[in-house]
Amino acid sequence: MTEQKPRGLADRLFGAAAPAPAPRVPAPRPVAPTSVRRAAAVVALEAGGLAGLAVLLLWLTVDGEADSTSRALAEVVLAVLAAAFLGAGAAGLRRLAGWARGPVIAVQILVGVSGFIAAFQAGRPDIGVPLLVLAGAVLYLLMTPEARLAYLDR
User: Fold this and answer.
1) Do 32 and 150 meet the contact criterion of CB atoms below 8 Å apart?
2) Which of 9, 10, 13, 123 has its CA 20 to 30 A from that of 57?
3) Ramachandran angles phi, psi of 3, nearest 5°
4) Which of 132, 133, 44 has its CA nearest to residue 85?
5) What sign does the CA torsion over 39, 43, 46, 48 have?
6) For residue range 6-25, what is the model confidence (pLDDT) as tens digits?
7) pLDDT tens sequence across 112-121
C-alpha cells in the first residue's frame, strides 16, 4: 500500500487540486458536402457585397451626399454588422457548425422578401432579381438531401 503525504491546512479546508486530466483525442472533422460548401460560397459573396455597400455608403457620406450624417453613418454600421454576420454564417456553414444553418436561412428569407419588394413593388428589377436569385440559390443548396443529412448527423 502506498503511503500518503499528510495533507496541509489549505488542502483540508479548501480541498486538494484535482489531478491533471488525460489528454483529449481530437475528434475527426466532418467534411461539408458540396451543396453546403456552395451555399457557404454564395453567403460569403453576399457578405462581400454588403461590405462593398458599406464602403460605398461611407464614401458617399464623406463626400457630402448624405442628407443626415448621423443616419448615413448608422447605415454604414448596419451594413458592416450585416456583412460580419453573413461572413460568420458562411464560415459556420463551411465547418458544418450547428448554429449557422438556421440564421443563414432566416437571413435568406429576409433577402428574398426584400428582393421581391424591390423587383415587383418598387419597380427595381435590376436590384430585386439578383437578390431573389441569391436567396433562392442558398435556400435550395441548404435544402438538398445531402445538406440536410449532414446537419442531421451532427
Assistant:
1) yes
2) 123
3) -90, 130
4) 44
5) negative
6) 767 777 778 777 778 888 88
7) 999 999 999 9
Question: The whole model's pTM is what?
Answer: 0.79
DSSP classification of residue 143: T
Percentage, residues of the chain above pLDDT 90:
68
What percent of the chain has pLDDT above 70? 94
CA dist 87 and 51 (Å) reads 10
Mean pLDDT computed over 95-115? 95
- Are 125 and 140 in contact by the 8 Å Cβ rule? The answer is no
Which of 51-65, 75-89, 137-151 is predicted least confidently?
51-65
- What Cα–Cα distance (Å) separates residue 141 from each residue in 71, 89, 135? 36, 14, 10
- What are the b/e assignments for 96-122, b being 16+ CB within 10 Å? beeebbeebbebbeebbebbbebbeee
Q: What whole-number distance in Å separates Cα of residue 70 and Cα of residue 59?
A: 14
Place of cell 435568406: 108
